[in-house]
Each structure stands twice: as structure tokens, then as C-alpha cells.
Amino acid sequence: MQEEIGDQEQMRYIYSYEPWVKCLISIQVRQVSLEQEQLNQHRLIMGAQTKTAVVTGGASGIGLAIVEYFVSEGYNVAVCDINIDAGNKLVSRLAMETPQAKIIFKKCDVSSWKNQAIAFKEVYTEFGKIDIVMANAGISEQGGSSMASIEEDEPQEPSLKVLDVDLSGIIYSVKLAIHYMNKNPPTGSSRGSIICTASNAGLYPFPVSPLYAAAKAGVIGLVRSTAPVIEGHKIQINALAPAVLETNIAPNRDLFKNMIVTPMSTLVNGVVKFLEDPGLSGELAEIHGQNVTLRPPHDYVDEDSRKNLENFWSLGYA
């Protein structure tokens, strides 16, 4: 009987503290929830601060150098390239060297609008934004230009593949970049930065490869004329015009034996120059030796030409 009374008193003692125990547990649960919410908010903030870059032709040459730079800066990076094997190997290597890096590969033929549109959409879906686009993929005429041969019999249709990749491909990249960058919140001084790979062959006569020169000159014109259109949306667009760089678009390595080769680090410096200054847009940086030189457009030949072209811009059509 005495033991039974003792048990009852013990139960009353426990029950009397039950509300306090429940309250303490509730406080602890709320504290854990608050800490988790703060952690989630921190992750969202850090995710928003981490820039996402798309690099076309990113598995080799210029694109590879830029991809490695972006990864070293902690960016999310999407490597877009037609070479599946090289792209996957690059992503695997960089993932091993930099475990914290977020880097993905997208197989992409830049001469296809559909290919590029799918790749950009997948990158945007995965990372939630696109801040930087390096429109870089390019090919050469591989030693002999179809424009340089004069047939004695019937003329042969020239191959326009170099225009499809080096000009049309960049036009597609720029169009998609503008679309996705315009979705970014208008905070700060820039919604995004587009950098296109042109060439000094677009500035000077390049008779061994007229179609390549035409494509690169077209890229320069595209950049300079698009910049005012997207300026109000806080989107930058600029171009790089490198001198001779040792890349895999050359037909063979012997080509570089007697050349003065510009180091890839100079080109990376050109990219950094554009990214660090949101005020630069519509600019062309010639990449030569150790130098990054901004090249302004030609002066107007006369005042009438200047007024006419400004009138077109005021009218909004041509």
C-alpha cells in the first residue's frame, strides 16, 4: 500500500513538470527550425552571389582557358562543346581538382539554334540564372579557303561552315544570353556580361582565309551595334580580338613555328577587364603580346554620315 502511494506521488511529480518539458521541447524545436531557416537563407544568398557562366567551345583552346579561370573564381560553369569526350573529361578533371566547383557539360553544336536553345535552357534550369556568356566557339577554314581557289571550269559552291559556326553561332549565343540575363534582378550596375571571341583577322586583311575574316569582322559589328540596344537593360556586350594564340583550330602545330604567339594569360586578362568594369560595353579589346588594347570604331568620314546613322538610331528602324 505504501509502495502504491509512493508510485502515485512520483507520477504526480512527473505530470506536474510535463507542461514545462513540453514547453522546453517546443522552444528547442523552434530554435532548430530558426537555425535551419537562417542556414537556408544563407545558402540562397550565397547561391545568388555565385555567378553562373556559360562558355561555348569550352572544352579546348580559348574556351578551356576561360573555363579554368571561371572555376578558379568559384563560378558555376557550363561547358558547351560539340566534342563530348573532351567536354566530359574536362568536367571530370576540374571536379577532381576543385571538388567544391559546380561545373557541368552540355553537348552543343553552336551552328544549330535548336542545340543552343536547349543547352541554355538546361543551364538556366539547373543554376537558376546566367550571368556571363563567353560566346567563343569557332573553327577555321582548315588550311585552304574555298574563296581562294579559282576554278577553270564550273565554279564550286563555297563552304560557309565557318560562317555558320563563327558568326551565326555567336549571334545565337548573344540572343540567348540577352534573353536569360534580362531575367536577372536589376540590382547593381549590370544584369550580365556577354563576351564574344572575334579576332584581329576581323580588323586587318587576312587573304589566306577571307570567310574567317568576314565572320570575325561580323562579330565586331554585331557587338558594337548591339551594345546600345541592350544598354537600358543593364547588359554588357564586348568582344576580344586576339592575335595569334596556339589553339586547336589551326590545321597543324607547324603553323606556329615562325609566329609570335600571344600567351593565353593575356586573353584571360581581357576577359577580366570587361568583367571588372560594368561601364564597358560595345568595346573591342585587341589581345596582343602582353597587352589588352581597346580599339575604338572608325571615325565618321564626314558629318553627314554621322547624322544619318544617328537618325536611323533615333527612328528605331532601317
Name a few traits of the molecule.
8 helices; 318 residues; disordered N terminus; globular; 49% helix
Task: Explain this structure.
- It is a single chain.
- The protein has 318 residues and is α/β, with parallel strands linked by helices.
- It folds into 2 domains: 17-45; 56-142 and 159-315, NAD(P)-binding Rossmann-like Domain (Rossmann fold).
- It has helices at residues 2-49, 61-72, 84-97, 113-127, 161-181, 210-230, 264-276, 303-315, and strands spanning 52-56, 76-81, 102-107, 132-135, 192-197, 235-242, 284-288, 291-294.
- An 8-stranded mixed β-sheet has the order 3-2-1-4-5-6-7-8, sandwiched between helices.
- Residues 1-5, 9-17, 21-25 and 38-47 have low confidence and may be disordered.
Show the helix and strand layout.
Layout: H1 2-49, E1 52-56, H2 61-72, E2 76-81, H3 84-97, E3 102-107, H4 113-127, E4 132-135, H5 161-181, E5 192-197, H6 210-230, E6 235-242, H7 264-276, E7 284-288, E8 291-294, H8 303-315
Parallel strand pairs: 1-2, 1-4, 2-3, 4-5, 5-6, 6-7
Antiparallel strand pairs: 7-8
Helix pairs in contact: 2-7, 4-5, 5-6
In summary, what is this structure?
The protein is an alpha/beta fold and 318 residues long. 49% of the residues lie in helices and 14% in strands.
Q: What is the terminal-to-terminal distance? A: 106 Å
Helical run tally: 8
CATH topology of the largest domain, anyone? Rossmann fold
Q: Please tell me the CATH architecture of the largest domain by its name.
A: 3-Layer(aba) Sandwich
Q: Which residues sit in consecutive blocks of at least 5 with pLDDT less than 50?
A: 1-5, 9-17, 21-25, 38-47
Name given to the CATH homologous superfamily of the largest domain: NAD(P)-binding Rossmann-like Domain
| CA-based shape | globular
Number of distinct beta strands? 8
Rg from alpha-carbon coordinates: 28 Å
Share of helical residues: 40-55%
Query: Which sheet architecture does the biggest sheet show?
Result: 8 strands, mixed
What is the beta-strand fraction? 5-15%
What is the residue-mean pLDDT, rounded to a whole number?
Answer: 87
In order across it, which strands form the biggest sheet? Answer: 3-2-1-4-5-6-7-8
Order of helices and strands: HEHEHEHEHEHEHEEH
